[in-house]
Amino acid sequence: MAKVDSIMTQNPVFISQHANVHRARMLMAEKKIRHIPVKAAENGKLIGMLSQKSVLGNAIKIINQSGLDKLEHVEKSMAVESLMDTQPLVFDVNAAIIDVAKSLLENRSGCVAITESDKLVGVVTSNDFVKLAVAELA
Predict the structure, then answer these.
(1) In 3-state terms, what secondary structure has residue 44?
(2) Which CATH code is given to the segment(s) 4-137?
(3) Average pLDDT in the 87-95 region?
């Protein structure tokens, strides 16, 4: 049984729930990622997941309501916690790859957080499964 640690991205980029949404959007663009785990500023525990989908949906809403010229200002006044998923999918580092894959499909999610002793150690995205499929098919 293959474990999820064999395909996860280790030491993922993360952000605090108090960081502003503009910072999160810029971090996603800079690192070319679609999901950012959110850790509590107080204790470093995983408390959520921020998706590019929610950030971009929020940006479109702001632009429609206030105009493009107000986007950065409004995003800077919004905390990440206002957009994050507060119930992210989380698996232990020893979980079976098949269980993680089934969960992604069942929950129509693009990312799961991987923990070890309640500490964030990685993420697995749908893209990791595409890479795995390519490797297996090659």
Answers:
(1) coil
(2) 3.10.580.10
(3) 95
